[in-house]
């Protein structure tokens, strides 16, 4: 019990450290955003409407991401940021959302995960699978 309380306290303290930078031109939001280390997809508890950030890097056609299935509750906001060393096009099936990738420049796509199911995210030109989005 003492260990559980100590761990919970450390998690709560770490969660309050820092705020993510706002995207240029994006309106400020009063809603809290989940802090996620680069390359780490996260799963949020049911009912949590915070932002789930997914960060991937593609080098020579190889995808680097922590975990290949991202689980979110229906209605969650998902922010996907991809940096590739080559021009490509990111596509999230089921949502039919695409994102042009320029070499060396991070590109971000944000969406509301409102369609339940499992959806593949891939790069069109290289054919690399980036991750699966599981909603519900």
What top-tier CATH class fits best? Mainly Beta
Number of strands: 9
CATH fold-level topology: Immunoglobulin-like
Please name the fourth-level CATH homologous superfamily: Cupredoxins -  blue copper proteins
Compute the separation of the termini in Å: 32 Å
Q: What Rg do the Cα atoms give?
A: 16 Å
Task: Provide mean pLDDT, rounded.
Answer: 74
Main pleated sheet: 5 strands, mixed
Note the overall shape. globular
Contiguous helical run count:
1
Strands side by side in the biggest sheet: 3-9-8-5-6
CATH architecture: Sandwich
- Secondary-structure-based class equals mainly beta
Order of helices and strands: HEEEEEEEEE
Total separate domains: 1
What is the assembly state of the chains in this entry?
single chain
Structure report:
This protein is mostly beta strands and 136 residues long. It has a single domain (36-135), classed as Sandwich (Immunoglobulin-like), CATH 2.60.40. Helices cover 10% and strands 41% of the residues. The chain has 1 helix and 9 strands; from the N terminus they run H-E-E-E-E-E-E-E-E-E. The strands form 2 sheets. Strands 3-9-8-5-6 form a 5-stranded mixed beta sheet, with no helix packed on it. It has a 4-stranded mixed beta sheet with strand order 2-1-4-7, with no helix packed on it. A hairpin with a 4-residue loop joins strand 5 and strand 6 (97-101). It is globular, with a radius of gyration of 16 Å. The two termini are 32 Å apart. Mean pLDDT is 74; it is low at 1-48.
């Amino acid at each position: 019990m003492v260990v559980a309380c100590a761990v919970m306290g450390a998690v709560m303290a770490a969660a309050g450290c820092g705020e993510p930078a706002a995207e240029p031109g994006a309106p400020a939001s009063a809603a809290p955003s989940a802090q996620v280390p680069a390359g780490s997809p996260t799963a949020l508890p049911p009912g949590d409407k915070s932002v789930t950030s997914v960060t991937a890097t593609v080098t020579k056609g190889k995808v680097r991401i922590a975990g290949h299935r991202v689980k979110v509750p229906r209605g969650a906001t998902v922010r996907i940021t991809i940096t590739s060393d080559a021009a490509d096009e990111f596509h999230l099936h089921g949502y039919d959302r695409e994102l042009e990738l320029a070499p060396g420049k991070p590109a971000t796509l944000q969406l509301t995960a409102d369609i339940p199911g499992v959806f593949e995210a891939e790069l069109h030109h290289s054919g690399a699978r980036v991750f699966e989005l599981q909603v519900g």
